[in-house]
Amino acid sequence: MPVLSCSNLTKSYIVDTILEGISFSVEPGDKIGVIGLNGSGKTTLFNILSGNISKDSGDIYIQKDLVIGYLQQHIKIDSENTIYEECLSVFKHLIDMEKNLRSLEERISTVSLNGESEELDNLMNKYAEISEKFQSSNGYGYKSEIRGVLIGLGFKEEDFDKEVNILSGGQKSRLSLGKLLLQKPDLLLLDEPTNHLDIDAIDWLERFLKDYKGATLIISHDRYFLDNVVNRIFYLENKKIDIYNSNYTKFMNQRKKDLEILKKQYEDQQKELKRQEEIIARFMNYGDARYIKQAQSRQKLLDKIKLIDRPIDSKKSRIRFEPQIKSGRDVLLVENIKKSFGDFNLLEDIDLSIYRGEKVGLIGPNGIGKTTLFKIILGEIEYDEGSINLGTHVVPGYFDQEMDNLHLEKSVIDEIWDEYPKMNYYEIRTILSQFLFVGDDIFKEISDLSGGERGRLSLLKLMLSNANLLLMDEPTNHLDIDSKEVLEDAILDYEGTLFVISHDRYFLNRVTNKILELTTDGIKEYMGNYDYYLEKKNEVLYEEEDEEGKTKTQLKLERKKEKELLALERQKKKEIKKIEKEISEKESALNEIDHLLADPESYDNHEKIVELSQKREVIQTSLDRLYEEWILLTN
Predict the structure, then answer these.
(1) Which of these three, 245, 271, 288, is where a domain ends?
(2) What are the pLDDT digits (tens) for 563-612?
(3) N or C: which end of the chain has fewer CB within 10 A?
(4) pLDDT more than 90, % of the chain
């Protein structure tokens, strides 16, 4: 039996309809990802389900005594309690119960001095009843539970005594999530729960939610998180809801197929509508009463047809990062970097090397020094010891997660035009439209833009810089899922070098080919994407001798060989991609020549026929050679 269900739910704001005819049900234990473009109604739906706002029409069924817990994306907490005391408030009923038990113990001790009595029996029975309830409610374990949740969400034990009012916004969000998880509601509504969490904390949250007995609805742009947690997807689009019984990746694959089918159905319907309209117009022009009657009959049938909405192309833009010049092979060499703030050593013995064409992800817990390392490399912060060398012709470009490179008082168009004055008005508008700034959006002040809009504008500035080394600090923050995929496609096509800080594991998995993990002991290197990093992270191979007794020297040689093999594999993939591009160009050239040879106007021009035939033979020979090379590389 569903714990919650909705039928024909509708919600509008003045003239804008946000949700229309939404119907779904939530079963016990369901883990549901709620996704859709920004503005599609996800948060509105959560506010309706939690009772924060009213629906316009429709029915909502909620199981009797169902407790709903709602984590909002933007949270304000004002409290003079410490972090630990704030979590203790969740268990006030248990604390009161415990006080009651201590009081009963004292009373029993006093009454028992007078020997057996009815009062003593009543007290003992009451004590047994409360004690059993206290134990079944985890009364003896709630303090350990608080500690486990707080540490799991990234707090340290020394943080427990910090006052809530002095916490950062991100820490308050983590505390609110922790309190909600400790309450154990029957239905969890989580709006972007992985914001402000580092990778370790997200891993912990995944495990917690997998084991959680209640049902959970999750709004999230973290695709890796959705893949690991949810068993269903609610996709909001065009005021409607589509339901998929799968995780995110399977949903996307099915969604692409559904869109192709819908596009075909839409195109077929449009062709048929046009054909019918032409027949109706022709019949009406005949002027004969019989034809007019047939035309009117067809028009009635046409009016009854349910029109298929034009499918939305989720890839609204395609961006490209194009380096102006090619860098040398050695792009960045960092050796023995040390950085302290007073007596606190933030970075020590930091060594790393990055080569042309590599896509490198930098990971590590919050506060470990990732952003500081980036700013040291860029020369914005001085370091205490070590050396940093940028390679020949390296032109770095920086995406700052705080987006400090934007001038809040400027309009969108002026922000770009002032930095690139040689571009004309048409060029500026064209490139802004590729980043979804259209119409009057280009005249908005940057201070009025959303986080996602500012992120897109910062990415545009980075793209125009023609840098051949991109340093990006959390570039997917504030971006919706579709925008993330557009960015990923651009990075995959990018011929320069990437060095990126990110907690977005799906993003890291898709775009990187090397992971650097920043720890208190320095940097550990993994020659693969995020899944490869996880696989190697769990092996004892990198930390001590294996079961066969291999020495550290042997393991080092094996890792060197593995790096060389990966480098060869990457080179092979590049060659294949280059050949496939050449094949495509040659095939297009052949098709063009064949089209010209088939043109009747060419029949009388013997010289042109001979010239085209000779040209075709040269291209075909070249194409055959390319096919042979492609077969050798792909086998």
Answers:
(1) 245
(2) 777 777 778 878 888 888 888 888 888 888 877 777 777 666 767 777 77
(3) C
(4) 38
Q: Is residue 551 part of a domain?
A: no
Q: How far apart are CA 568 and CA 575, in angstroms?
A: 11
Q: What's the pLDDT tens digit per position in 11-38?
A: 998 778 899 999 999 999 999 999 987 7
Q: Is 319 a residue whose pLDDT tops 80?
A: no
pLDDT, position 550: 57
**What burial letters (b/e) apply to 214-226, b meaning 16+ CB within 10 Å?**
bbbbbbbbbbbbb
Residue 385 or 238, more confident: 385
Q: Are residues 335 and 480 in the same domain?
A: yes
- Residues 529, 399 share a domain: yes
**Token couple for 293:** 């009657």
Using the structure block, give the residue that is written with the tokens 């102006």.
324
- Mean residue pLDDT of the chain comes to 86
Are 180 and 85 in contact by the 8 Å Cβ rule? The answer is no
Q: What distance in Å separates the CA atoms of residue 23 and residue 422, rounded to the nearest whole number?
A: 53
Mean pLDDT, range 227-244, rounded to an integer: 92
**Rounded distance, CA 473 to CA 500, Å?**
6
Same domain, 375 and 455: yes
Predicted pLDDT at 554: 64
| 42 occurs within a structural domain | yes
Q: How far is CA 77 from CA 44, 168, 197, 506, in A?
A: 22, 10, 18, 31
Is residue 560 a part of any domain in this protein? Answer: no
Residue-number span of the structural domain to which 148 is assigned: 92-157
Q: Which residues on adjacent β-strands are paired with residue 244?
A: 233
Query: pLDDT (tens digit, 9 = 90+) per residue, 46-100?
Result: 999 999 999 999 999 999 999 999 998 777 778 889 999 999 999 999 999 999 9
By C-alpha distance, which of 106, 148, 105 is closest to 127? Answer: 105
pTM as predicted = 0.68
Domain-embedded: residue 311:
no
CA distance 217 to 58: 20
pLDDT at 540: 47
> Closest Cα partner for 34 from 71, 82, 66, 8?
71
- Note the helical H segments in 287-356: 289-304
Number of domains in the chain: 5
Q: Examine the domain organization and report whether 524 and 480 are in the same domain.
A: yes
Is residue 10 within 8 Å of 41, Cβ to Cβ? Answer: no
Q: How far apart are CA 423 and CA 428, in angstroms?
A: 7
Please report, in angstroms and rounded to a whole number, the separation of the first and last CA atoms in the chain.
53
CB 344 within 8 A of CB 300: no
Mark whether 341 and 440 lie in a shared domain: yes
| Residue 41 DSSP code | S
Distance CA 91, CA 110 (A): 29
Task: Find out whether 261 and 268 touch, Cβ atoms under 8 Å.
Answer: no
Contact (Cβ atoms closer than 8 angstroms) between residue 498 and residue 491 = yes
Among residues 127, 157, 187, the one where a domain terminates is 157
Widest distance between CA atoms in the chain: 128
- In this structure, what CATH number is given to the domain that contains residue 520? 3.40.50.300
> What does the alpha-carbon distance between residue 195 and residue 530 come to, in Å, rounded to a whole number?
19
Quick one: 71 and 126 in the same domain? Answer: no
